[in-house]
Model the fold of this input.
Amino acid sequence: MVDLRHRQYVLFTGTLGDLRGWSDLFDSEVHSAPAFVWPADHAWCFASDVDPHWAGIGADRGVVDRLVADRSLDVVRADPEEPQPTYY
Done:
């Protein structure tokens, strides 16, 4: 377990295929998607939270540019130095 302020996480290591049924490993009625996912080379990171409409993706600029350009996705570029988008 990894305890952060206001959140508790299970640290799981495996392949994408191993994610199938990962929540069955825990004695819990909560079956949510992983909050953070990244490959072994740390080339990118996917993060989600309790809000189902939000996910963050950290990657090099080229990857982010391709995601922003994909019209089938609702992507907003975020800059930590700027006010973040809100969904009210």
